[in-house]
Amino acid sequence: MTYDNGVNSQHVEGDGTSALDTSKYNPRKMTSDERTSVIKAGAQFTRKSDEPWLLISGRFDSGGEHSTEDYVKNSLYAAFGYPAERDPYLTINVVLDSPGGSLDSAYTTALYLSAYAGKIDLYVPDRAKSASTLLALAANTVYLSPFGQLGPLDTQIPDPRNPTVSVSALDCYQSVDYVRTFGAMTIQTVFNALLHETNRRLLAIDLLQKACSFAENAVSPMLSQVTALDFGGWGRSLRIGEHYGRKLLEARGVPPEEAEHIANTLVFKYTHHFFPIDLREATDIGLDNVEPMEKEVYDGTLEIVRLCNNKDFVGFISPEESDKEKRGSLARRNRDGLRSARDETFSDRYELSDRYEHAQAEVHVGEY
């Protein structure tokens, strides 16, 4: 199961509930002209740099050959080949603009980048919310603009009351704590009220039993809506984001206790999923790799992001790596086309052979 972060609360993609038929029209897919504009702007922005620049724009999708991590893997392989070992002198600059998406995809993307680069510099002019915040935990340096935001890592799940929209698993998980607290407060309130009304003429143990019975009747309808499987699932889904965050921080050299504190804060300590984590907030929770972005860099990266028009783009924008990626993509398409032609040829041969055997069988049947 893929756990999802950053799903718009009004629309859950990919679960079959959307009114939009994405098989006919994908609003997140770029046109050829749009992609060309992004690459040109990227070449202009990176012209003074001799380091590779990768752009990741859009939602992190997981699973299959069209997943975000697969596109990242193909881009890296085309530019640098097979990563026999990490190059300690290679710095990969990543421009990131994402509302979030799959925790699995974002975590795997961070692993792929780390397999190649000795240093990862992340640039966030606008947003790296929810699951995409995992890349900020993996990066050596995060350049965050005054308008840039990271986000909490609490997992988003289908709302039990209305599966067509999403809700934070933390809301569901903490609702049980709320009911428990409500029950305890109810016992105390009712017990004190009974003491006052009876002028302490009855035994305290009898009053306590009445208070407990009243509280039980009050909370039972709420607790009856939650199964142990639900509660365990919510907790487990939240632990995935925490576990991924801690692993990435520790891989970057953050001490285990500090890594656990930061990851736990990102999952459990914020009031709601869309809480904006800016430069000051990121520093306050212990992220020591976040630095302010310069205006020139902000203007350049924001223009590239703007040209993406809220659509998906994964690929290099630095000319040298972009050219290698283009050649690799062309070779891949040619290889896939050749494989497809071979499959069709095999299918045709199989069909002809099947027809021949069928005809022979009919001959033999006629002979008998």
UniProtKB/TrEMBL annotation:
It comes from the Bacteria. Residues 1-35 are annotated as: Disordered. Residues 1-11 have a biased composition (Polar residues). This is Uncharacterized protein. It comes from Catenulispora subtropica. The lineage of its organism: Bacteria, Bacillati, Actinomycetota, Actinomycetes, Catenulisporales.
